[in-house]
């Protein structure tokens, strides 16, 4: 499909630079079948049914944004996927000027050597020393805010908490599973009181989620792989939800993509551990999920293509036009949409 079919005009003032406070005070646009309703995230319990189950991504964002020097040249690096105990793939500003074996000093006694360069423009960095890389990143790294926020303000202390979900566990993501940012203990308790359960899985979100689709046709776009895990017990519980008539609602496109990567031929979710590079566009047949809670996405992005696959492109274009006209806030710190396709 032509990528320009997924374009739309978004005024810059619709991009949220800070999250709603409290988190569950964000607005929520509900699309259920042919209905479209303006609501709030705190209203979620009454827009779902007893027996439904929300599926959250419990990945933790690491301080993966690094600034350093190679000789007299400044270097900006964003880690995007672990390659080994001391090695990470990274997108590097000015990567063409780097050579294999170049040493980059990131300050705070943190340095890395360029081990390899890939065709996609990324480089493989090997961190020096014996200290765990996680500790090195805590010393020298910053939270990797999305470029559409970072271009308009600097990272500050508030982002260390704001850009982490309440479910954050295993570290490894370089971007937040942002739909999960809307949840609070109070909202989770209200959902439980309404008979709505939850499960977690892990997908370490990579910086590739922010990359624009440069191809003219979706067939020519290459997704970056991300590592994920669903344990067997969680898969069994989620299958039991659907067998009992409940719905699985993915919280975020990251949860949805991992679930759809783990589903078998007969619609049963299986345990999963490994990489996924699934690319969902209109025409895709969803087998693992019955709905999606997600934020509002970029024009021409793989994520807008995904929601268009779930609800229909014309429907999502109309919904986004309504959201823009109605003052909804977009992107990582923005408002939410609850997408429930007709059965």
Automatic annotation (TrEMBL):
Keywords: Cytoplasm, Glycosyltransferase, Queuosine biosynthesis, S-adenosyl-L-methionine, Transferase
A molecular function GO annotation: S-adenosylmethionine:tRNA ribosyltransferase-isomerase activity
Glycosyltransferase in keyword set: yes
EC number: 2.4.99.17
Subcellular locations according to the entry: Cytoplasm
Primary location recorded for the protein, binned into one broad class: cytoplasm
Domain of life, per lineage: Bacteria
Family statement: Belongs to the QueA family.
Function: Transfers and isomerizes the ribose moiety from AdoMet to the 7-aminomethyl group of 7-deazaguanine (preQ1-tRNA) to give epoxyqueuosine (oQ-tRNA).
PANTHER family, per database record: S-ADENOSYLMETHIONINE:TRNA RIBOSYLTRANSFERASE-ISOMERASE (PTHR30307:SF0)
Protein name per Swiss-Prot or TrEMBL: S-adenosylmethionine:tRNA ribosyltransferase-isomerase
Organism ancestry: Bacteria, Pseudomonadati, Pseudomonadota, Alphaproteobacteria, Sphingomonadales
Gene this protein is translated from: queA
């Amino acid at each position: 499909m032509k990528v320009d079919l997924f374009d739309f005009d978004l005024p810059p003032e619709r991009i949220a630079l800070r999250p709603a406070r409290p988190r569950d005070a964000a607005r929520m646009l509900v699309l259920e079948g042919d209905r479209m309703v303006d609501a709030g995230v705190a209203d979620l319990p009454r827009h779902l049914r007893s027996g439904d189950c929300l599926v959250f991504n419990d990945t933790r964002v690491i301080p993966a944004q690094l600034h350093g020097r190679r000789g007299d040249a400044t270097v900006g690096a964003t880690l995007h996927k672990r390659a080994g105990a001391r090695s990470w793939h990274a997108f590097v500003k000015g990567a063409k000027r780097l050579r294999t074996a170049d040493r980059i000093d990131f300050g705070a006694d943190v340095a890395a050597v360029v081990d390899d360069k890939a065709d996609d423009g990324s480089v493989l960095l090997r961190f020096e020393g014996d200290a765990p890389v996680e500790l090195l990143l805590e010393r020298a790294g910053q939270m990797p805010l999305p470029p559409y926020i970072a271009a308009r303000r600097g990272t500050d202390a508030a982002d260390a908490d704001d850009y982490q979900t309440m479910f954050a566990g295993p570290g490894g993501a370089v971007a937040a599973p942002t739909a999960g940012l809307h949840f609070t203990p109070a909202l989770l308790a209200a959902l439980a009181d309404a008979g709505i359960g939850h499960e977690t899985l892990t997908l370490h979100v990579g910086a590739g989620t922010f990359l624009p689709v440069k191809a003219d046709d979706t067939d020519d776009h290459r997704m970056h792989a991300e590592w994920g895990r669903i344990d067997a017990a969680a898969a069994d519980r989620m299958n039991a939800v659907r067998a009992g008539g409940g719905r699985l609602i993915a919280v975020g496109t990251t949860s949805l993509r991992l679930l759809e990567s783990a589903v078998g031929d007969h619609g049963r979710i299986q345990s999963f551990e490994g990489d996924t590079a699934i690319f969902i566009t209109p025409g895709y047949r969803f087998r693992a999920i019955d709905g999606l809670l997600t934020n509002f996405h970029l024009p021409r992005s793989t994520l807008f293509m995904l929601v268009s696959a779930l609800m229909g492109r014309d429907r999502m274009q109309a919904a986004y036009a309504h959201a823009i006209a109605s003052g909804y806030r977009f992107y990582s710190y923005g408002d939410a949409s609850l997408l429930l396709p007709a059965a």
